[in-house]
Design a protein that fits this description.
The chain is of the alpha+beta class. About 40% of the residues lie in helices and about 15% in strands. Among the domains are: about 160 residues, no CATH class; about 140 residues, Beta Barrel (L,D-transpeptidase catalytic domain-like), CATH 2.40.440; about 60 residues. The protein is globular, with a radius of gyration of 29 Å.
Length: about 550
Amino acid sequence: MFMNFKPKLLCATAAVAFATIGSFAAQAQSTTMSLPPEEGALMFALTAGSDTALYAFYETTDFAAVFAGNQAKLTALLQALETAGAHGLPVQDTLISDLRVAISEAGTPASNAALEILAAQAYLDFATDLTSGVLNPNDISNLINFDTVRPAPEMLLARAANSNGSGALYDSLEPQDISYNALQEELAQLEALVEAGGWGPKISTGRALRPGQSSDRVLAMRERLNALGYEGTEGDSPRYGEALVVAVKAFQADQTLTADGIVGPQTLTALNSDPSFQMQQVIVNLERRRWLNYDLGARHILVNQANFTGYVMDYGLPTLVTRVVVGKTNAKYQTPEFIDRMTHMVVNPSWNVPQSIASQEYLPQLQRDPSVLTRQNITMRVRGSGERVDARLIDMSQYTQNNFPFVLQQRPGSRNALGRVKFMFPNKYNIYLHDTPSRSLFNRDSRAFSHGCVRVQRPLDLAYTLLAPQVADPEGTFAAARATGRETTINLVAPVPIYLTYQTVFLNENGEIAYRVDVYGRDTLVFDALAENGVTLPEIAS
């Protein structure tokens, strides 16, 4: 259950306003006030309520209405609420109905005050959702850790007060980048596909389809790939020919599947997905984009775990793109999502083996072959005293994962698990970016193999890029530190923000919408939370 999400109190607010407003006019008549009747009624209504933020704002404007009496602003608000689904936000039909009733009944100071409070609270909730998301990310999973930047209610109301009553206000509140707009357009196209019945009949289950085979299942595959926009899929041949193989490989690559042209269980599942599933993914990623709707920094590092790719971004453009390997898919080793600042790099790093890896992975190896540490240039010390010991002289069979009393450290060298350099942004998860001697994994389409840290395919280029603003010869500076053979720290003069994100639908470097497999299962977690807050999906037309 998701019990800590931002509650929707709009109907309750309206009920309080309408229940108490009847007495406000009588009180206003018997109270000596310097405010005109309209402003006085609003002051009384706000005083009776419990929303201190609303009262604080209106007090600064002498309780002048923002919405009541301004038909253009009320119309724009209603239109924004009615089209919330275009952003993947909940459409609140009851609230919209209440607003329409309040507008029709407005005309007296008391009814205008009730309308103002209802409209202002509706606007604040919608504007907050639109700018920074419906959800509190930290409530979804302990592996999702973003502190969203919620705009102050007073600031949002001031923008509404200063607006001209057009929809431009709401356009300005949403994330101002092309990726958000592209996701919106994709959502609209998918919704149209859902209404039209999707991508055609699904491919029946069976043995893996291989190039050169003929089957009626190929006809269904051809139809779905054609509907998805892949070239070379036209025609009515049941043969799995060369052009169709090319299309399947392109589809597999787009889905981060092994692009071998063999339609096995994973590829079949991906091909048989319907537009509503993609809609769910797009809605989730619109929400993720709202979580980061603020200035990320002129220079920053972004890691998209779902795409297994890291980027150095300078003024909104990628100046370095590198493949990465992220944590394994089981929850214990998944790379978390969080934000930090990269402060330094360590050249010729030592690897302090995490205790979980030492006891769960190295201990069984030691029990089979006590010389394994010597071959891997790893020293073993007694935990606490730091005394160095030789594993070959100890009976390792006496130890288990629960009582392993040693700490392991791999010294700098060509076989070091961290490679030639690690990039540090000290955090509670002990996660960092680093080089690796295991280069072959970068050739895989799906690259979830680490214990949580992020392995970088182009570590030296990343080091040079980070050093370029502070030294005249980045490559020479790095090479000099590397040549010492000793662990050497190089501080970054200007720490660089780093965002470890998880985007399964995004705008790629070619300006195209790209989908990735949800290897960590986090899309489902986010969408379930959104659904509890009122987000819905349309049904596929039969």
